[in-house]
Amino acid sequence: MQGDDKTLKILFFGDMVGKPGRNAVKEYLQSIAPEQNPDFVIANVENASHGFGLTEKNYNELSLYGIDCMTSGNHIWDKKDIFNYIEQADKLVRPMNYPEGAKGLGSRIFDCGEYKIGVINLLGRVFTTLVDDPFRLVESEIARLKKITPIIIIDFHAEATAEKICFAKFCSELGASAVFGTHTHVQTADENILNGMGYITDAGFCGTVDSVIGMEYKTSLSRFLTGIPERYDVAEGGECQINAVEVEISPSTGRALAIRRIFCSREKIEEDESQ
């Protein structure tokens, strides 16, 4: 549909954890997403390869699924081959508040039919990695991107709820279209339109349901009982879930018109495929 009545539907997947998460997203995009008809698909992929980071192989795999943009977080550097391909990965955005000189880009402009969409990725600073101030950076970056497009989507990868909410309110005043919180892997029920901007504190995660935020329960339990660091393993087998958010945006103003939180299980995906 052309003209002023057109709205852009953005589909955002929460943190994708390992192969179960990748497979769940693939199945969702093949079976359910066509009915929703999203115009642009974003996925957080910082845990997509064995639970930590993103390999070039998995980047290429996810690109074939119909994902238009991949955001990340503090695990972006965990796979060594990231340094070999990140400069050529034109769908990948890493947190922009790493110090100057870090490889890759913290924001990008993407084509979406006749429109352009700006995507920014930032890390929070409370209880997380020591990085540059996301508030000051997003202020200048939104102003820069606004000269190109009114549609600005932000993945704010942060731990503290208060920091996420304060950041979102700040971004709404700056004219952002949507802020999707990521990192905690627990989907929150606070999706809303904040001063014309779509917002959710955390989009959740895509991966195995019977897990500790996507990781094996027994390994996680052992760490808490003994205090001894052990390697986390991705939980596999059994039911998988999709945590995502859908926001509708006016391309002329960049304002969010509607937001919907999505939660579904693999059983639901398989049921839809059989119809």
Helix content: 25-40%
What is the tally of helical segments?
Answer: 8
CATH class: Alpha Beta
The arrangement of helices and strands along the chain is: EEHHEHEHEEHEHEEEEHEEH
The second-level CATH architecture is 4-Layer Sandwich
- The CATH superfamily label reads Metallo-dependent phosphatases
Average pLDDT: 93
Low-confidence segments, ≥5 residues, pLDDT <50? Answer: 271-275
| Overall structural domain count | 1
Biggest β-sheet strands, sense, barrel: 7 strands, mixed
Cα separation of the termini? 28 Å
Radius of gyration: 18 Å
**C-alpha geometry:** globular
Count of beta strands: 13
Strand content: 25-35%
Description:
With 275 residues, the protein is an alpha/beta fold. The chain has eight helices and 13 strands. Strands 1, 2, 3, 4, 11, 12 and 13 form a seven-stranded mixed beta sheet that branches. Strand 3, helix 3 and strand 4 form a beta-alpha-beta unit. The longest helix is centred in the first third of the chain and has 14 residues, at 18-31.
Feature tags:
275 residues; alpha/beta; Purple Acid Phosphatase, chain A, domain 2; globular; disordered C terminus
What is shown here, in short?
Strands 1, 2, 3, 4, 11, 12 and 13 form a seven-stranded mixed beta sheet that branches. Strands 5-6-7-8-10-9 form a six-stranded mixed beta sheet, with helices on one face.
Topology:
Elements (H helix, E strand, L loop, with lengths): L7 E6 L1 E2 L1 H14 L1 H4 L3 E5 L11 H8 L5 E3 L10 H4 L21 E6 L2 E9 L10 H13 L5 E6 L3 H14 L3 E5 L9 E3 L2 E4 L4 E4 L8 H10 L13 E10 L6 E10 H9 L1
Parallel strand pairs: 1-3, 2-11, 3-4, 6-7, 7-8, 8-10
Antiparallel strand pairs: 1-12, 5-6, 9-10, 11-12, 12-13
Helix pairs in contact: 1-8, 5-6
